Structure formats: structure tokens, C-alpha cells
């Protein structure tokens, strides 16, 4: 199967889209897919973009560059030009706006974690958009989804929004969770040893997220504070987090800063910090999926998170963690953790279950096999 793979960013750069552009393509290769990379694509910016950005800023509104007509049309032209030298069976794109202005007789498939409707007002850069951007964004999304032969979403949240907001045929929308963006050759026995090595008389919490406010950094600190006050010694480790300038963190918070996982020493440090943690805590205010939940599960580390966006697909209650309502106070998280420590065998069972979730659905091997199955069925149906 020859696949024209369309990404705006560099699909070989692990920093692109949190590594997803790379891992999506890699997940398909073991199952016979030959990937023809069409990214990165250039952004053909209109000379009037900056003027319009300044104009809308006067009204407290913003533009969304990826939905700019000049950029959307330009990317469509680039893809058509690159396809001339290729013989492929289908086109796979990571985002609908890449092919919103594009014509081809080839089957078109999208694989993403969101769409315009579900992202609108959820993430900071999708808030306070000017009315022209909103109208155009919905139009691009609708047209792209109507022309698609298949749409893969990482979560139920995006699937439901596509069906409700854009009237997409439910038969062509499939939920395929992303996998962990780290190598894992751990066995259940290995994970049992990791679980057994964690202390039973103190709690190690891990917060993984660059964007402090959106990821719920303040809530994570308050949860750790509640636990310490209640008599359960707790340490909160921050990886890659940037608290607001001037914010004084309590002594029980450890800040590691950025860890380069491309460096062997950095990767070892990253893996050790996850493996030693009892819980990953990420009380996000907006989250399309959350690759870190998959990574935590690969070490048998349960996740504690909010019940918003795509998180309920990534974190199953009782499976690989527990989700809480967005408005839940820090005491709810702390109460749950204390209950787990009070009956530690329950915690150990949850940790083992987290690894099973990784093995059965939160790894790229499963994701790639599922996607290839749908792609083959779609191609066979078109030929019939």
C-alpha cells in the first residue's frame, strides 16, 4: 500500500506536533505501508495578514493563520504538484485544513485528534477568533470531511463533534487512540517490579506539561499540598513545566525543567521519573487527547485527570486511572489518592491495569494495525 502522507510540519522531526507526525507514519510501516512524505509544506502568507491581525486586535479578536485562505490554497497547490511524481493508493493527512482546498480522485483519509468545532473556544489560540475566521474554519472543515473517504480520530470527543456539527457519516469516522511516543519493551513482569519498588508510605506525583495554566499546574500543586497536610508525605515532580514568572513553589515540588528525550541520558532520566511515580496528575482545562497518558500507562502508572475533551478516551476510569469533573476541587483528587494508599492492593491492581491498557489499546502497534485494517477495507470497497 502506497500512501501519500501530508503534514504541514516536518514528519521526521520528533518535536513536530509532539512527535505525532512521525509516529503516525511509523505505525503503518510494519503492516506493509510505504510512506511517501509530502511534508513539510510552505506557508504562503498573504501580505495583508499582518494588517488584518492588527485590525482585529483592536476588537479583542484574533486570526488563525492555518485557516488563512492564502495558506490553505497554497498547501493544496503544493500537494497537487508533489503528487504528480508519485503513484500512490491514497492520501493520508494529519489535519483537514491541509486539504480543504484540494482536488483529487484519490481516496483521502484524515487522522487527527480534533476538528475545528470541538477546538473552538477550547484552546487559547482558538478563543476570541474573529467572525470571518470562524465562518471560514467551519466551511473548510465541512468541505474536507465531506470529501474524505475515512476519518480517524484519537478520541470520542472529536468523533462526536464531527458527526454533530458537520453531519459526517458515522460509518466513515473511526476512533483510533494514539500510542505512547516512547519505545517500550517492558513486560508485565517488568512493570510488576516497578510497581513493587514504589514506596507505600509516601506518594510521588508527576506533572508533565509545558503549558502551566491549561494543564492545571496550580491544581496539581494544591493536590500535593492537601496530601502533605493530611499526613501522607507527597512530592510533586514537574517535567517541562513553566510556572508563571515569580510564582514561588513549595518545598515539596521538584522542578526538573526540560528533558531532552533524544539524548540517552535525558531519556533515562525521563523514564526513571515516570517509573518511580505513583500517579501522573494532569488536571487540564483543555486537552484533545494527551500522549502522556499513554506513556505513563506503559510504566504501569495510573493517571488522574479532568473529564474534558479527549481525555476520557485516553484515561478510562478504573482502567488506567481516574477522571474528575473540571470543577472538581483538589480535595477530590487528594481523597482518591488517600483511598488508594489506605488499601494499597487496590493501587497495585490499578497500576497493573494501566499497563494492560497500554498493551491492548494505547500503543502504536495496535493503532497502526487498526488503521491499516480500515484502509484496506476502504480500498477494497472502492474497487468493488
Structural commentary:
This protein has 384 residues and is of the alpha/beta class. The protein folds into 2 domains: 2-179 and 363-383, 3-Layer(aba) Sandwich (Rossmann fold); 188-360, Rossmann fold (3-Layer(aba) Sandwich), CATH 3.40.50.2000. Helix content is 43%, strand content 14%. The protein is built from 15 helices and 12 strands. It has helices at residues 20-28, 49-57, 69-83, 116-119, 131-147, 156-166, 188-197, 212-215, 217-229, 264-275, 291-297, 311-314, 330-342, 344-360, 364-383, and strands at residues 2-6, 34-37, 90-93, 108-112, 150-153, 173-175, 203-208, 234-239, 253-257, 279-282, 303-306, 321-324. The strands form 2 sheets. The protein has a 6-stranded parallel sheet with strand order 2-1-3-4-5-6, with helices on both faces. It has a 6-stranded parallel sheet with strand order 9-8-7-10-11-12, with helices on both faces. Strand 10 (279-282), helix 11 (291-297) and strand 11 form a beta-alpha-beta unit. Helix 1 (20-28) crosses helix 15 (364-383) and helix 7 (188-197) runs antiparallel to helix 14. The longest helix is centred in the last third of the chain and has 20 residues, at 364-383. The two termini are 17 Å apart. The model has no long low-confidence stretch (mean pLDDT 95).
